[in-house]
Design a protein that fits this description.
By secondary structure, this protein is mainly alpha-helical. It contains 4 helices and no strands.
Length: 72
Amino acid sequence: MLSGGDLTGLFSVYSYVVLVVLISRLVKKKSVGGIHRKVIHILIGNIVLLWWMFDSPYIMAFLAAAPFIPLL
């Protein structure tokens, strides 16, 4: 069962990823070369700061991280 902390963590992680994708699109339109890839990698690294919200490590691993594996 998902606790309140797990739901907050999932919402935060997915919201942050959407925000990073939107920021990278803006950077891609304004930049030359592959700098948007660097922006994505740097910003996605900050997801570590959201880990404290999760109550269960299994929820963090399987529902927050695993859906991005096929996507990437």
